[in-house]
C-alpha cells in the first residue's frame, strides 16, 4: 500500500495553484480535494482506491464497526464515549491492510478486520 507525506501534498498543491496554466473545473475540484486531505489528514497518509475494494467485497468502515461491536472487546467497546468509539474504529480502519483483506477469503478478511480492532482495543486497556 502506498503512502504519501502531507508535506509532499502541500508542495504539489502550491505548485499547481501557482501554475501559469489556467485550471479547468475538474482541476479546481481536484485541488480542493487535496486541500481537504491536507487539512484533515495525518502527516503520512495511505493512498487507497476504495472503489476497487468496494467493487470486490464491499469491505469498509461499517465492517470495522460491526467487528468492534461484536468482537472480543464488545463489552469494553460499549463503555467508550461515542467519540472514543469512533476514534477506535478510525484507528483500526487506518491500521487495516486493505490489500490483505482484498486478497483474503471472506473469513480471512473478517479476521484481518477483527485483528485490527482487537489490537487497538488492547492498546487502550
What does this structure look like?
With 125 residues, the chain is mainly alpha-helical. The chain folds into 2 domains: 1-47, no CATH class; 51-125, no CATH class. Helices cover 71% and strands 6% of the residues. The protein has 8 helices and 2 strands, in the order βααβαααααα. It has helices at 6-17, 25-40, 50-56, 61-70, 74-78, 82-95, 98-103, 106-124; strands at 2-5, 44-47. Strands 1-2 form a two-stranded antiparallel sheet. Helix 4 (61-70) packs across helix 8. The two termini are 29 Å apart. The mean pLDDT is 81.
How would you describe this structure in keywords?
single chain, 125 residues, 2 domains, two-stranded antiparallel sheet, 8 helices
Separation of the first and last Cα atoms:
29 Å
Run of helices and strands: EHHEHHHHHH
Low-confidence stretches: none
Count of separate structural domains:
2
Number of DSSP E strands: 2
Rg, alpha carbons: 18 Å
- Give me the secondary-structure category: mainly alpha
List the total number of helices.
8
Range of strand content:
5-15%
Mean pLDDT, all residues: 81
SSE map:
Blueprint: E1 2-5, H1 6-17, H2 25-40, E2 44-47, H3 50-56, H4 61-70, H5 74-78, H6 82-95, H7 98-103, H8 106-124
Antiparallel strand pairs: 1-2
Brief characterization of the structure:
With 125 residues, the chain is mainly alpha-helical.
Amino acid at each position: 500500500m502506498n503512502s504519501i507525506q502531507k508535506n509532499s501534498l502541500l508542495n504539489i498543491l502550491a505548485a499547481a495553484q501557482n501554475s501559469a496554466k489556467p485550471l479547468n473545473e475538474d482541476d479546481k475540484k481536484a485541488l480542493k480535494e487535496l486541500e481537504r486531505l491536507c487539512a484533515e489528514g495525518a502527516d503520512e497518509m495511505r493512498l487507497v482506491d476504495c472503489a476497487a475494494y468496494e467493487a470486490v467485497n464491499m469491505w469498509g468502515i461499517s465492517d470495522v464497526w460491526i467487528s468492534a461491536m461484536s468482537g472480543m472487546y464488545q463489552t469494553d467497546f460499549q463503555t467508550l464515549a461515542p467519540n472514543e468509539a469512533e476514534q477506535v474504529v478510525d484507528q483500526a480502519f487506518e491500521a487495516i491492510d486493505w490489500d490483505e483483506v482484498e486478497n483474503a477469503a471472506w473469513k480471512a478478511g473478517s479476521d484481518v478486520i477483527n485483528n485490527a480492532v482487537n489490537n487497538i482495543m488492547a492498546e487502550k486497556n
